[in-house]
Hints:
alpha+beta
Amino acid sequence: QWRRLLDFGTGTLGDMGDHIFDTPFTGLELTAPTSVRAECRAPTGVGHPTGCKVEFEFPGTPYTSDELRFTWFDSSAMPKTLPGTRLPADVKLPGGGSYVVGEHGDMLLPHWAEPTLYPAEKFATYQRPEVETGNHYFEWVDACRGEGTTSVGFDVGGPLTETILLGVVASQFPGETLEWDAEKLQVTNLSDANGLLRRTYRNGFEVEGL
């Protein structure tokens, strides 16, 4: 549980968010959020909160509405149902995953299982495209050796990490909407939040350029 300590981890969102958020973020071609707001317990100065609800607002893309809201839930904040969606009442939500609400259908994507489309009868004959798969452990080692690249590069991982960590920062200011300037990499309406965007490294552990 070291991930919950402020000095060593980034909480549940920082740990699992990059895995769960990756598919909708990449598939919808999202960019940096314009704002983020967290609802959770007050900060303690020791550990990251659990039971968080974090709302990200994104500018639209060719695959979304003019604006897009992505809501993250973890631990006790996770809903048991999703009213207003096409998810059948008898379907139990997985312990981790994402749910995408589309114009003509919805997709439930568990973290450890295949996606399901709803309404089920509408997509009963839908043939999913063949997707080339690989071993991400091997991809990482091969890329380090200069033999090929990983399936997701820094061009995606960088902006995705920026988004996730902004949500982590927001959890230290519950109830506040942080307005984000991605060009300047700073929160424009709450100066205290900018103090959490970087840290002072101990002697011998400095990172050149940071």
